[in-house]
Amino acid sequence: METEKIGLKKRPRNDGTIAYYWVASAVSRHSKDYPQKTVRVHGATMDEITARCRVLTSELKQWLSQRGAGEPVQYDGKLRTLIRMYRTNPASPYFEIKRVTRDNYDQSLNLIDQFCGMRRLDKVTGLDIKGWYNELKKAPEDTEKKAKQRAKAAEEGRTLAESKPRPRRAYQCMQLLRIVIGFGVVSNISECFRLKSVLEEMRFNVPAARTESITFGQVKAICDKAISKGLYSVALAQALQFELTLRQVDVIGVWEKIEDSHFSGIIYRGKRWQDGLLWSHLSADGILQKATTKVDGVDLLHDTTQYPFLRQIMDSVPLSKRIGPMIISEATGLPYQRRYFAAVWRKIASEVGVPNDVWNRDSRAGGVTEGSDAGADIEHLKHHANHTNSSTTQRYNRRTLQKTRSVAQLRVAQRSAVNETKSDG
After folding, report:
1. Tens digits of per-residue pLDDT, 118-154?
2. Contact, 380 vs 368, CB < 8 A?
3. Which of 93, 334, 360, 403 lies in disulfide reach of 380, CB 3.0 to 4.6 Å?
4. Cβ distance 248 to 336 under 8 Å?
C-alpha cells in the first residue's frame, strides 16, 4: 500500500475528524535512532498530505544511507524514483543548498511528483513536457470552500475575482525538472542524456518579477491587529521586516535538521533553530547588528531608535523577556516554523483587508519602496537593504550606519508629512 511506504498514518479524533501523521517506523525498521519519530502532517488536500510525507520519507532515507542502513532508492525507469534519488543520495547537490532553498525546491519537486512522477522517462517527449508546463501554469480550480463563497457572492450581486494563472509555479517546476534530469545524467541514467538534450531545446517564459509591496498603513494595521490578539511576536516580526528591510529568515530564523546530538542551542524534534534575531544582537543604545544569511552577506547594521513605530513595539517587551530569540510563538514558546508563521500572518493580514497577493515577504520591498518615494539616495538604500551586488556598495561599508540612519529619517519624515496632508484635507 502506497501510504504505508511513505509512512502515512491516520488517527480518528473525538470530534469525528481525522488527524494524519508521518511515522518513521512505518518507513523503515532501522529508524529507531532517527530524531523525528512521528510528525503531524497538515494539508488542504490528500495530495498535499502525501507530498509532505514523501519529503519526510526522503529525509529519513538520506539519514539512513549516510549510516549504511536501509536500502538506497533504486531507479525503476520512472521520474518519481529519479526525484527520490536526487533527494536521498548523499552525493546529490540537493544537500549542498541552504535549508530554506531546499524547502522551495521541495514545493516544486512535490508538484512534479504528483503531476507526472508516474511517467517512464524513456516514453517522455518534449511535447509531454510542454503539456506539463501548460497544465501547471493554469489557474487553480475553486476549492469547495471557494465555490460556496462564489455562489454566495453571486446571490448578493457581487462577483469574486477569478483565480489567476500561475506561470511562476510552472516555470519553477521546469527549472527543477532540468536540475533533476541533470542529476540523472551525472548518475549515468541513459534516458536522462536524451531528455537533457530535449530540455536544452525548450524555452519557458520567465515570469515577470513581483511588483507587489506592502505599505506602512498595511503594516500598522497588521501590527495593531496582532497586538489586539496577544500576538506580539507577529507584530514585532512585521515591524522589523518592514522598518529595517530585513529578510524574513533573518528575523524569524529557520529550523535545520541535525544529524546527531552534539549540537547546542534551541533543539526540538531533531531540528535546531538558527539564523534569526536574538536580543543579544541589540545593543543598549538601540543599534541592531547581525550577520545576514546570504552567502555574500555582510553584517546588517541599523539604529532602531530612528523608527518610533518599531521602538514602540520593541519597548513593550519586558526586559526580563529580552533573552534569546526575539520572535517566539505565543502558542508554542519556541521560534516559529516558517509555514506556521506564514499561516498566522496571512490570517491577520486578511482580517485587516491586505490582499492575498501581498505577502509577508513583500515587507522588504515595501520598506525599500517607501525609502525611494521619500527621496533616499539609492546608495543609502542599498546599505539599508543589505544589498552587496555592486562593488560600489562594498567600498562604502564603513559608513553603513550613517546611511541607514539617513534612510530611516527620510521615511519617518515622509509619514509625518502624509499624515499632515490628510489632516489638512
Report:
1. 999 999 999 999 999 999 999 888 777 778 888 887 8
2. no
3. 403
4. no
Confidence band of 425 (pLDDT split at 50, 70, 90): low
Kindly report the three-state secondary structure assignment for every residue of the chain.
CHHHHCCEEEEECCCCCEEEEEEHHHCCCCCCCCCCCEEEECCCCHHHHHHHHHHHHHHHHHHHHHCCCCCCCCCCCEHHHHHHHHHHCCCCHHHHCCHHHHHHHHHHHHHHHHHHCCCEHHHCCHHHHHHHHHHHHCCCCCCHHHHHHHHHHHHCCCCCCCCCCCHHHHHHHHHHHHHHHHHHHHCCCHHHHHHHHHHHCCCCCCCCCCCCCCCHHHHHHHHHHHHHCCCHHHHHHHHHHHHCCCCHHHHHCEEEECCCCCCCCCEECCEEEECCCEHHHECCCCEEEEECCCCCCCEEEEEHHHCHHHHHHHHCCCHHHCCCECCCCCCCCCCCCHHHHHHHHHHHHHHCCCCCCCCHHHHHHHHHHHHHHCCCCHHHHHHHCCCCCCHHHHHCHHHHHHHHHHHHHHHHHHHHHHHHHHHHC
- What backbone phi and psi angles, to 5 degrees, belong to 19? -100, 135
Classify residue 84 as exposed, middle or buried by CB count within 10 Å of its CB (0-12, 13-18, 19+).
buried
Query: In terms of Cα–Cα distance, which of 31, 30, 50, 29 is closest to 41?
Result: 50
The side-by-side arrangement of strands in the sheet containing 267-268 is 254-257, 271-274, 267-268
CA gap 425, 420 in Å, rounded: 9
- Please check whether residue 275 is in contact with residue 254, taking contact to mean a CB–CB distance below 8 angstroms: yes
What pLDDT does 204 receive? 92
- Cell numbers describing residue 394: 562594498
Domains belonging to the chain, first-starting first, are: 72-200 (1.10.150), 216-424 (1.10.443.10)
Closest by CA position to 241, among listed 212, 214, 207, 280 = 214
Which residue reads 503531524 in cell numbers?
40
- In the chain, the amino acid numbered 308 is P
Say how many CA atoms lie within 13 Å of 63 toward its Cβ: 22
What is the Cα–Cα distance from 366 to 379, expressed in whole angstroms? Answer: 17
Give CA–CA dist 189/186, Å, rounded: 8
d(CA 117, CA 79): 5
